[in-house]
Structures are given as C-alpha cells and as structure tokens.
Amino acid sequence: MSFLRDLYGTFIRISIAIEIQYRASSAIWLMGMVIEPLIYLVVWSAAAEAQGGTVGGYGPRDFAAYYLVLAAVNQITSGWHMWEFQYRVQQGQFAFLLLRPVHPIHGDLAENVAHKLAMQVALLPALGLLALAFQPRAELHAWSLALFVPALVLAFAVRFVFEWALALACFWTTRIMAVNQAYFAVLFFLSGRVAPLALLPDWLRHLADALPFRLMVSFPVELVLGKVSRPDALEGLALQLVWLAAGSAFLALLWPRALRRFSSVGG
Amino acid sequence: MGALRIFWVFAKLGFQNEAAYRANFWIQIFESLLNVGSALAAVSLVFSRTETLAGWGPPELVALLGVYFTVYGAIHIVIAPSLTKFMEDVRQGTLDFVLTKPADAQLLASTSEIRVWKLVDLVLGLGILCYGIAGLRDRVGPLETLGFGVALVAGAATVYAFWMILATFAFWFVRLENVLQIFWSMYQAGRWPVGIYPRWLRISLTVIVPVALAVTVPAEALAGRLTAANLVLACGVAIALLAVSRWFWLRGLRRYSGASA
Amino acid sequence: MSAAPAISVEGLAKTYVVPVREAGMRAALRSLFRRESRRVTAVDAIQFAVEPGEIVGFLGPNGAGKTTTLKMLSGLLHPTSGGARVLGFVPWEREHAFLRQITLVMGQRNQLVWDIPVADSMERNRAIYRIDAPRFRRVLGELVELLELGPLLERPVRNLSLGERMKCELAVALLHEPQVLFLDEPTIGVDVTMQRRIREFVAAYNRRTGATVLLTSHYMADVEALCRRVIVIHHGRLLFDGLLSALVASFASHKTVSVELGGPAPDLSSYGEVVSRAGERAVLRVPKADTPKVTARLLADLPVVDLVVEDPPIEEVIERVFAGEPAP
Description:
The complex is a heterotrimer.
Chain A: H1 2-21, H2 23-50, H3 60-77, H4 81-90, H5 93-99, H6 104-134, H7 142-167, H8 176-190, H9 202-210, H10 213-224, H11 230-265
Chain B: H1 2-19, H2 23-47, H3 58-92, H4 96-99, H5 105-111, H6 119-135, H7 142-168, H8 181-187, H9 199-208, H10 211-222, H11 228-256
Helix pairs in contact in B: 2-3, 2-6, 3-6, 3-7, 3-10, 7-10, 7-11
Chain C: E1 7-19, H1 25-30, E2 37-50, E3 55-59, H2 66-73, E4 81-86, H3 96-99, E5 102-106, H4 118-128, H5 133-147, H6 162-174, E6 180-184, H7 192-209, E7 212-217, H8 220-226, E8 229-234, E9 237-243, H9 244-251, E10 254-261, E11 273-278, E12 281-287, H10 291-301, E13 304-310, H11 314-322
Parallel strand pairs in C: 3-7, 3-8, 5-6, 6-7
Antiparallel strand pairs in C: 1-2, 1-4, 8-9, 10-12, 10-13, 11-12
C-alpha cells in the first residue's frame, strides 16, 4: 500500500521535526519515565540486601537487569493520547482530524512511533550509563533475543490499541483524569512496574495472567532476560496476537459510537 | 497582616468556585484514595518480602508516606496551581494583571489559585502519618515531635523556595512548559527513605531537587533517627534557598518589566 | 447546466443535548456517567439547494445555526432529522471519496502545525489527500500566486501574523482542489486590508475553478463582495433565501444616526425614531431617503459635538425585519 507508506513516512518526518522543537520538554518527560524504574530498582535491591542477598530469586544485579530493560520497554510501549484527546476535542482540532480522508488513528500511531525513535537518542545512552552504575546481570539466549523483537512490537501494538480506545472515553465522561489515573494504577501493578510479576502474591499474578497488561510491558522483559521457557514464550506471543485482535475489534466497535457521541454533544 | 488577608480572600474565592461543583469533591476522594492506596500497597508488597528496608521498618515507612502525602497535598492546594498559572501568565503576557496590584508580586503569584478539594490529599496524608506514628508510639517523645515540627517547616519552606526558583525560570524560558515536572519526577523518590539510594542519587535528591529535606528528614525525626547536624542542615538550606529564590524572583521581575538585561 | 445541485438540503434539523450541572451528592455521583441534560435546537428543519459554482452567503447572528449547518454538510455532525446531499454523497457517512472533494475552513482555528514551517503542513496534506507530485506543484504554484504566499512558506506558523496565518490556512485547505468549499467566518479577527484580500481571493478562486462556496459570516461586507445569493438563518430557521439585492433593498431602507450633543439630549422624536437616549447621546433610526435632511436639521438646530451615520447592524436589522416589521 504505497499510499500508507507515503502517509506514514510524511507523518513521521513531520512529527520528528516537531519533536526537535520540543526537545527540552521531551527530555523532562523522559527523565520522569526513567526515574520510576530506577527507584524500584533501588528499593528491591535494598530489600534483597536486607534479606541476605536475594528476594524471590532476584539479587540486586538481577533487579538491575530487570528494571533497566523494563525502563526501555515501558518507554517504547507507552502512549499519551488518553491525556490529549479531550484537550484536542475542546480546542477544535478533532474536527480537523475528522475532515481528513484518513482515520485519525494513523496520525497518532505515526506520531507515537516518531516520538519513540527520537527518544532513543537520549534513552539508550542514559540506560547505558545506569548500567555502568548498577552492573546488571542476565542470561541471554539467541532465541530469546530473536523473539524479543516481535514480542516488543506486539506489546507496543496491544498497548497502543487499548490506550487509544481508553482515550475515546473522553466522549462519555469529562472525568478523564480519574479514568486515566485508574488505568495507570492498574498498569503500575499488573504490568511489572512496582515489582517483577514473579514477586507478586499469587492472586495478583493470576489476575495479571488473565489480563493484557502483562503482555504490554512485562512479557517482553521477562522473555529477553531468559525468565520464560521457550514454549511459554511462544504461548505469550500467541496471547499477544489474541489480545491485539480483541482490542482492535473493540476499537472498531467503539469508534462509530464515539463519533455519534461527539455529534450529539456538539463539536 | 495584609498578606494574610489577601490569602484569605483568595481562599474564599477558590472555595466558592469549587463548592459549586460538588462532584469534584467525590472525584478528588477517588483520585486521592487511588494514589494513597497504590503507595500503601507498594509498601505492603515490599514488606511481604522483607522485614526491614535499609533499617527502616513498616511503621517508619508508613510515617514517611504520611509526610510525603501531607507535603504533596499542601503543595497541590496553593503552590502548584498558583505557580502553574503564573507561568502561563508569563507565556501569555497577562502577568501585568498581577504586577499592577498593590501587593507583593511574589505573594500574589504564589497564592492566586487555590484548589480547595486538594485538602483531601492533605487530610489523607495526615491520617497516614498518625497511623505511622501510632506504630512508633514508644519512640516518639517531645524532643522527636519538636524536631519533626521544625524539620517539617524547614522542609515546606525548602520546597516552596525550590518551586519559586523553577517557576521564575519562566521569565527566561517561556517555552519550558513542563519544567515543574522536574520536581514531580524526582518527588516520587521521596516515598522511600533517602538512605537506600546510591550516593550520587542521594545528593541529587538533597541538593538539586530537595525532596529528601522535605520528606525524609521530618520522617527521620519521628523515627528517632534525626541527628542535630541534619536538622541544622535542613534549616540552613531552607533559609538559604528562600533567600536565593527571592533574589532570583526580583531579578526575573526586573527582566520582565524591561528594567535590566 | 448540470442537472444535480452541488448541495441539497431537505428538512435538516439538529438538536443538541446539553449537560446541565446539578447540585447534591447523588447528582454528582450520577454525573460521573450519565449527565442531566436539556435539549437545544440549533437548526430547525431548513431546506435549500446550491448549484455548482455558486457562492452563497449564509447570514445570521451568533448562535443562529450557521456553523452547525456547515458542520453537518461537511460530515462532522449527524443531523437529528432530515437529509442532505453534497456532490451526491450523504455527508455524515464520511466516505473518503466525499472528504477528498470538500474542505472546511474555520476562522481562528488552525489546522496548520504551530511550530514548523507552513511548507511542512502542506506536505502533510499532500500525503493525506494523495496528491501526486506534479499536481501538487501546479496547485501550490497557483495558490502561492493568488495569495501572495511566497516568503511565508518557510516560516513557522507561530511567527506569522493572524492575517498571514489565515492566508496559509486557506492555501492548505485548497491543496486538494476541493469542489465544495465551506468557509466558516474566514475573515473574523483579521484586519480590514486582509479581509479584502481574502474576499478577492475567494472570488478569483471561484472564477478559476468553478468551485461551489458556502460562506458564513456576520460581516455584511464579506457577503456584499462575494455573494449574489444569500440565505439568512436565525434561531435555526431559514428566514430568507434569495438574491442579495432583494435583502439589501429591504434593510438598506433605514440608517442609524448617532449624535453626541453639548448638553442633555432633548426629545428627538421629531427627527426620527428614537432607538436610545442617555445623557448627551442619542441614537435615531431614519429612513434612508430622509437621512441627509434629518442630519442637516440636527446640525442646524442642536449643539452637535459628534454625529455618525451608519448602516444598522445586521443583527438588529434581521431582528426587526423578520419580527414582523412592515416593509417600507
């Protein structure tokens, strides 16, 4: 589809140009995204030391590996459209998006990808420096490294689809802050940010397995660090595909309804 | 005192504004409970796996969280919304509205907006603080309480001065919209005792972004770990930073009104 | 003469559901997902047709329903009832083939990206509307010439003045050579010289391309310059659909004379209909033909400090003419 290639190419190029204009703000935002994994890296390392070396099989250097990879994966899969959507509707920009003969999701996807590409310039060196400070340790296998790439791409896709659907909630409620905060609270626990999922109590771990949040962040991290057996890795990839299909179907059903809400309350 | 009267007027206005939207109260309760609940759950999770964290036990950590949320609530009631609005005013060029009033511009800029419902955060913070103190009962005597009070005031003053400095940058860098985000990013680290962080991070959290002084030092007082040296340091930093922020503000103001380069 | 109209509207109506804030805890909890609301009729069963190539002015005061109508015709809103067709399509089905042939320009709202050069925003539209390179160069060249955009293309949008920004907005909106242009208050907030230039551009563009233009404005000057035909809408209802000359004749029948006197204004009803009188100022409504005579009398009889003769504002005229005032 050469039209889509041209479209995405142009969108991404323009988004990067805009990114460069906002590099200072982006740097600040990036700092915020890296600090949280850093904090929990230190907290769990301290816990491990208090317990004589390890907690749940993780020592400080294992936590270092986990959290540094998590920082990267979390940043790469993250999105912000749930914050922006309501603002966009109120400022009238959404009307312009609707006038275009392309679905608004393309622009947002391109913008997201562009932002991630631009951010790696700062993120990877920062994580590299932190790696020097914290000395991560992990078992890396060729097969898990190979599977990491599709797992990461799928994780990004699943998270993007669900978060874009979440953004549409702004058509049904003005309390979008509360809704988003609830979402991020769930993500904090079930996507592996507060602790590696293996350290969670059983009931939470079962919940994490039943929901897509693990597949959005934790799964690729576990995979590349060799914490997942080969059959489980393949099963995880399959699950990602299933959730992606489910999320896309949900979005396809939600979108026309969102447009109708937009239409009834006024543009 | 004129300043207090101004503050009281803003408070009343803020309250009347927000009381009209009582739904905001319930939303605020939801958001605060979510925030506080997540923090407590995280602490509980850590303590399900270990008995101490860098020598701090569960009640001490709860007390720390209490101080964290109390300061968080306090900032969000007045300082954060007012200084955010101030930075917006600088960007839009509407600061003159503040400058032509017969009161100190810094006071006006710092207190112009009041989010009354953020009191919920403050109250929740105090609640958790009390819960933590209850666990520390036998160790909190009059000396510790005094130390706590002084440390808290010094911490609050330090945070305010730091915010003023960050916000004053708006006079020079108009497009740095999320500069205040720097504080919030680092502030999260205050949920855990500053002692667990490696030295370089500890220094950042004390000197560059004074999170440690605002949160950990008062909590240390309650836990009976506060050294006189640390308390003196905290007070010294507070006074110095207040002075610096005032000087910086006046510089910025002169620049804005074109009086100097 | 082509058979089908470019735009045809039949019984089109739009009622908004407006949330109403209520007090009390239960209402607050309810307000989380289901809001109390009331209905506001923005457009009340209107009907008209526009031939290809026409420039039609859509007149009416603020809140009359003009913008809502344009939004329905461009597919942004679903009507509550009734139908419309634009270029044979049902607008709110938002087929891509339809969207590629229309454009909506809203005064004071930018689709241009703020921080990057105008040329980049144009590049973006080129990709969105699938305009191939040679066609893009040709159309851009024509627009640059017609709008005098030359030096503006490489500048970031935030560095442009409001008028320059409006010109660029128009250009970007027309890159895909739409057949139907919806212009919603394109000259609002722009200085007088630029207003004239924009009007000239729209007229020239219409002549060159034969595009159909539906223009809303509450500036009479826009409509007078561009439109032979006007549709007047008020409170969501169509009040007039016909030649501008007929409408002008009916409201140019009167003039507004505002005087400021050296002392308190006496009773001026012998000069004309007194619209208002306060202190030293008074406003009179005088039949057009009598205006020179009345003005001369006022100047001769009274200590006039200032005197202004104006066309009445369109809002007032519409209110008066269609509130049952007999035609002069």
